[in-house]
């Protein structure tokens, strides 16, 4: 399993950004093999973690036309800058909350 770590500094996030982000999340999860997607925003900074079964799935997602268009819009309008890192998950364990919810 691999994790893609996307860190960005927001310039201006608008309604279109929210719509595109939701569409891309659903597309990655339903058609490209993304296992899980989590994003957090705080003080103009965004961190998104997406988990993937293999590097081929990540490559296919990176080359998707809708994703490429969103990247272009991100550079032109939404982000002052961003960084992407890809790492292999070598161990994964959890301590579930007492309610049974995953962290």
UniProtKB/TrEMBL annotation:
SUPFAM superfamilies: Dimeric alpha+beta barrel. The keyword Oxidoreductase applies. InterPro entries: Dimeric_a/b-barrel, Jasmonate_Hydroxylase-like. The keyword Oxidoreductase applies. It comes from the Bacteria. GO terms for molecular function: monooxygenase activity. Gene3D superfamilies: 3.30.70.100. Keywords: Monooxygenase, Oxidoreductase. This is Antibiotic biosynthesis monooxygenase.
